[in-house]
Specification:
13 helices, VCA0040-like
């Protein structure tokens, strides 16, 4: 099997994006033009057609894992030393990706009362989750008990789904569950117990949900996008770190917010440009 360096590069971009809330691996796959092939390969991976998917899946997976491991140290350092500006950067990313998702869903034409109701219900559900999620500051060690282990395992299951959902980052899911900083800390300190519980959740979640998600995305796009948009809007209340009141910190947070918004917005525009040039990621 010939190694496809381009797929490794795309995978690395997807891995890096998936540990940054607001910019998802699915969004990157859309922008670089491999999203449909990703959906089909994941669907066929758990079937007799598995050999056909390996030249695509293996180098992409190598890139994803490499991107996560290479970039997590920087995120960990920033969460420790600049928590508030980093959270505002994440807020900017999440808000910046929303116009892209509304355009992808063609919301003006396709959204009906049922889609708006579902979107608002998901926003309310995520805000409710914030009440039950363990409180988390910057980068913290995770104390494993039966209860916290099950919570972390559940976070891994839901985070795995984000690998295929454009606009929803695994990092956003971990933030919703209140374990994002702890997950980054576990990677940096090689906390094997925490890593294994999280990876087990991600692995099982991906195996169970991947074909379902691929089917839903290909057959019920509008409903799926309504859920994704609801998840992201609801996550804003979780990511918002409050305002310290210090002028210097507020100015820095404003700058990081603007930077995050600009990055996500431009990524969405890049995908629009591809579509105008005739590369439609939803064409089979």
């Amino acid at each position: 099997m010939t190694v496809n360096l381009k797929l490794i590069y795309y995978g690395a971009l997807m891995g890096i994006s998936n540990i940054i809330p607001g910019v998802s691996a699915g969004t990157i796959a859309l922008i670089v033009g491999i999203y449909d092939e990703l959906l089909v390969s994941v669907r066929d991976f758990f079937s007799p057609k598995i050999k056909r998917t390996l030249p695509f899946i293996v180098p992409l997976a190598v890139g994803v894992i490499g991107g996560i491991l290479a970039f997590s140290w920087l995120i960990g350092w920033l969460l420790t030393h600049a928590f508030e500006p980093v959270q505002f950067f994440f807020l900017g990313l999440i808000l910046g990706v929303l116009p892209f998702l509304f355009r992808e869903a063609d919301a003006k034409e396709t959204f009906r009362i049922i889609h708006i109701t579902l979107l608002l219900a998901v926003v309310a559900l995520v805000m409710l989750m914030n009440v039950f999620a363990p409180e988390e500051g910057a980068r913290t060690a995770y104390e494993l008990t039966i209860q916290s282990g099950l919570w972390l395992f559940s976070a891994g299951i839901f985070a795995s789904m984000s690998l295929l959902l454009p606009g929803l980052s695994g990092a956003t899911v971990l933030l919703m569950f209140g374990v994002y900083g702890s997950a980054i800390n576990a990677l940096l300190t090689v906390d094997l117990a925490v890593i294994l519980v999280l990876v087990a959740g991600i692995g099982i979640g991906f195996i169970v949900s991947s074909r379902v998600i691929a089917y839903v995305l290909l057959t019920h796009r509008t409903l799926t996008y309504a859920v994704i948009i609801g998840l992201l809007i609801g996550s804003l209340t979780i990511v918002f770190p409050g305002i310290s009141g210090q002028i210097g910190m507020m100015l820095l947070s404003l700058l990081t917010f603007a930077g995050g918004f600009a990055i996500a917005f431009r990524l969405g525009k890049a995908n629009d440009t591809k579509n105008r040039e005739g590369v439609n990621p939803h064409d089979e």
